[in-house]
Specification:
The protein is mostly helical. The protein contains nine helices and no strands. Keywords: Membrane, Transmembrane, Transmembrane helix.
């Protein structure tokens, strides 16, 4: 069988795109759009419409940047999928499942800025209640879409625990870290039951906690993937 090698330059670039995605989210939603934290789901429709009208330029610029940088989900996740393939023997079931999962996650990432951009295109002409429902939809996409991402974390963990390489590509603690992260983002599923409090989509748990856990996971996985790439490069040089 042909040895599975990776171009370290391309792999490092792909791993760093995850960091770029996280930074772009903080800059666009936090600074340009003012959506960190989200507008409260209990906010009256007229007040929410006023926010979109007042911030429409920032929202348009922010969503343009997001449409570019959120595509990095696929490049970043593929840098991990390659190592999942390296951990598997025989038919790479986890690899195939991960690639399919990555494609689905890519759709969720792009639906968010596209919907916000459409709302900010002509917010003065939209019925405030329609705008409110569509804004709810974006936050539901952002937070309630946790299951496929949790599944990807589980795929990573299973691959690490079954890794036949010596030494293993990722340390075993990374597998446990992925399992715990998959569990810790479950409270995101409660946002459809609450308009106020810690489980609302602007709440302490369903937004702030899940937000920190998920994007912290991306930064940790970027770090361990970069270490794996460096170890590959040293092994080839030796």
């Amino acid at each position: 069988m042909q040895e599975q090698t990776i171009d370290s330059g391309i792999a490092k670039t792909f791993a760093y795109t995850g960091v770029a995605l996280v930074l772009s989210l903080v800059v666009t939603q936090g600074w340009l759009m003012g959506f960190i934290p989200p507008p409260s789901p209990a906010l009256p429709a007229d007040e929410l419409a006023r926010i979109f009208i007042e911030r429409k330029v920032g929202i348009r610029i922010g969503t343009l940047i997001q449409c570019i940088c959120y595509t990095f989900w696929s490049t970043w996740a593929i840098s991990i999928a390659f190592y999942i393939r390296r951990m598997e023997r025989g038919i790479p079931v986890l690899t195939y499942a991960s690639i399919a999962n990555i494609g689905g996650g890519y759709v969720f990432f792009l639906l968010m800025p596209i919907t916000w951009a459409a709302l900010a295109f002509r917010p003065e002409e939209l019925d405030p209640h329609f705008l409110q429902v569509m804004n709810d939809l974006v936050w539901f996409i952002f937070i309630l879409s946790w299951p496929p991402f949790a599944l990807f974390m589980i795929f990573i963990a299973v691959a690490i625990f079954k890794d036949y390489n010596v030494p293993t590509i990722f340390p075993r603690w990374v597998g446990f870290f992925n399992l715990w992260t998959a569990v810790l983002i479950i409270p995101a599923g409660l946002i459809e039951f609450f308009k106020t409090g810690p489980f609302a989509y602007d709440g302490l748990i369903s937004f702030w906690f899940v937000f920190a856990v998920f994007f912290g996971w991306m930064l940790v996985m970027s770090t361990v993937t970069l270490r794996a790439i460096a170890a590959d490069k040293r092994a080839r040089a030796a």
